[in-house]
Amino acid sequence: MTDTPLPAAATIRPAASRARWRWPEILFWLAALAALFGLPDQYLILNEIAILALFALSLDLILGYAGIVSLGHAAFFGTGAYVAGLLAVHVAGEPALGLAAAAVVGAALGFVTSFLVLRGSDLTRLMVTLGVSLLLFEIANQAAGLTGGADGLNGMVVGPVLGLFEFDLYGQTAYGYSLAVLFVLFLAARRLVHSPFGLSLRAIRDNPLRAGAIGVPVARRLVGIYTLSAAYAAVAGALLAQTTQFVSLDVFDFHRSADVLLVLVIGGAGYLYGGPVGAVLFRFLQDWIAGITPQYWSFWLGAFLVLLVLVGRDRLVQGLRWPVTALLSRFGGGPRLGGER
Fold first, then answer.
1. 161 - beta bridge partners?
2. Which of 100, 171, 291, 316 is most buried by a 10 A CB count?
3. CB atoms within 10 A of CB 23
4. What is the DSSP letter of 253?
5. Quick check: 286 and 304 in contact, CB under 8 A?
6. What is the DSSP secondary structure assignment for residue 313, as one 8-state letter?
7. What pTM was computed for the model?
8. Using only C-alpha atoms, what is the Rg of the chain?
C-alpha cells in the first residue's frame, strides 16, 4: 500500500474547498452592490453599515481566528479617524492618502500594544485593551489644540475619490467608497485566513501549547495578526472621518468597542462574514426596534441578545427557517424536512 500521498491529498482538498467561492457569498456582494443603485434614500445608513462591517471584520481577525479578546478595539478605530482627519486639515484631503496613513499609524500602534495584550489571560487582555482605549481618549481630550477636544475636529476638506467622484450630500459616493474599501480588504482577509498563516492561527486559538510544540511561532503569529487587525480598524475609522468630514471624541468611546462585539455575537465570529452580516442585522434591529419603541429600543435589543446566547444561533436560525421549509415542502417547492430530496 502507498499511503504516503493520501494524507497530503486529504489535507489539501478540504483547504481548497474552504477557499472556493460559494453562491451565498457572491449573492451577498451582489446585493451590497445593487443597494448602491437601488436604495437611494438609504445611502447614509448603508455607509454606516459598511464601515461597521469593516470594523467588525478587524475584530474577527483576532477574536474569531486567534482567540484574542478585546474590549478596547475603538483605540485603533479612533486613531485612524484622527489621523485621516488631521491629514485632511493640515496636509491634504486625498482620500487614498488618508487611508494609507491611518493604516500605517494604526498598525504601528497595534504592534506596540500587542506585546502588552499578549501577556496574561483573557481577563488581562480585556483590561489592557480597555485601558489603552481610555488612555487614547484622554490624550485626545487633553490635546484640544490639535484634536479640537470635546468640540471635535472641524475644517476637514476631503477631495474626490480617485480625483473623479465628489462626496455628495446624499451619501452615494460615500457608500460606494466604503463598500469598495470593505470589499478589497475582505478579499485580502479571506486570502489570509485560508493560507498557512491562517491555519496556524486556528491551531493557536484551539490549543496554543500544542501549536507551539509542533513548531508554530505562537508569539510572532499573534503579534502579526494583532497588528493587521489594528490596521483594518484604523482604516474603518478613517472611512468614518472622510465620509462624514468630522471627527469627535466619540470615536474612542466605549460604546464603539461594545457595539462591534455585539455585531460579532449576532453574526458569529470565526468565518469572516460574521462582521458584514452582523452589521446588517445589528443596524436593522436598531432602526426597527427604535421605530417601534424609541425609549426602550436598547432593552429589546438586549433581550434579543440574551435569547441568542441562551438558545444558540444555529438553533434560533433553524427555528426561524422551519416554518418556511415546511411550507415549501408542503407545496413541493423545496427540500423536505429531515434532508429528504
1. 165
2. 171
3. 7
4. S
5. no
6. H
7. 0.84
8. 22
